[in-house]
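Design request, tokens follow.
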């Protein structure tokens, strides 16, 4: 750790994967710690396990933010919410969970308690009734959360062909900032909102060789996601102290090792391909380390 807690500004990639049910890359989810507050952005498959690996009980999470409603970004939500309510070291939540997200968030947070009504009815006898409550807030572009020196803003991104609202987030704390792209194709609005960011965590897609998907499918993916060549232009124009890839969508024979060389066509700055539980401290310097690595 090594930092006073007021000064702490840390981003941990809980999951760097996508829909494929891999064991090494869980679904997209990112933990942001700033001062004494902790936020989760997206709740992909396995977010609860990764949080538990960090030794952080769900009770400690201040709020949760969704970038969009594709299932790979939300299927881990019921696990965080309900397992995180159980009164064991990984859970113990006894305050309502505030959830920010695009249109559809209120509907989901109203219906999930109905879907799990039997479990909630039974467990309420043993656990805090407040700890299972969900409070939904639907977002537009602009500041969405401000508390104790932390400002979280949403900006629209282009998850294009899918016709669903999608946002990225910018977190500002003590003059430092992190930007999370959410799911997007190359997007000028993201470049605008990411200016001056210390850390830029960006999604990426690559397809090479005889991709298993049809050409139409690949075209659709291209309208919704960012290639490393395009991301290179984004990074070159934002100039973050560190750029990190997450949400790796690899098709055909595309490999994670090929992402950096493809990005180098346009961007020569600091760049890491994210792994689950990669931790990035944003201080004077922006420093990343694998989980378990000593500083
Ligand atoms: Zn998506």
């Amino acid at each position: 750790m090594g930092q006073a807690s007021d000064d702490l500004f840390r981003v941990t990639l809980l999951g760097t994967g996508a829909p494929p049910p891999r064991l090494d890359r869980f679904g997209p989810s990112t933990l942001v710690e700033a001062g004494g507050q902790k936020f989760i952005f997206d709740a992909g498959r396995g977010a609860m396990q990764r949080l538990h690996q960090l030794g952080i009980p769900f009770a400690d999470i201040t709020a949760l933010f969704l970038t969009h409603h594709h299932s790979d970004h939300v299927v881990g939500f019921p696990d965080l919410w309900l397992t995180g309510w159980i009164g064991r070291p990984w859970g113990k939540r006894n305050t309502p969970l505030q959830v920010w997200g695009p249109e559809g968030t209120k509907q989901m947070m109203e219906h999930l308690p109905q879907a799990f009504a039997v479990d909630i009815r039974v467990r309420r006898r043993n656990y805090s009734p407040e700890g299972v409550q969900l409070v939904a807030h639907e977002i537009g572009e602009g500041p969405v959360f401000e508390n104790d020196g932390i400002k979280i803003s949403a900006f629209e991104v282009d998850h294009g062909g899918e016709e669903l609202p999608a946002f990225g987030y910018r977190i500002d704390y003590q003059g430092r900032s992190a930007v999370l792209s959410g799911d997007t194709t190359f997007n000028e609005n993201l470049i605008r909102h990411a200016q001056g960011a210390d850390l830029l965590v960006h999604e990426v897609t690559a397809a090479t060789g005889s991709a298993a998907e049809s050409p139409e499918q690949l075209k659709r993916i291209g309208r919704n996601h960012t290639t490393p060549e395009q991301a290179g232009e984004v990074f070159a124009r934002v100039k973050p102290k560190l750029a990190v890839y997450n949400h790796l969508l690899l098709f055909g024979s595309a490999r994670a090792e090929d992402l950096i060389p493809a990005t180098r066509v346009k961007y020569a700055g600091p760049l890491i391909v994210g792994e689950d539980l990669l931790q990035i401290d944003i201080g004077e310097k922006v420093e990343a380390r694998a989980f378990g690595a000593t500083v």
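Comment from the thread starter after seeing the answer: thanks! The CA atoms of residues 241 and 286 lie 6 Å apart.
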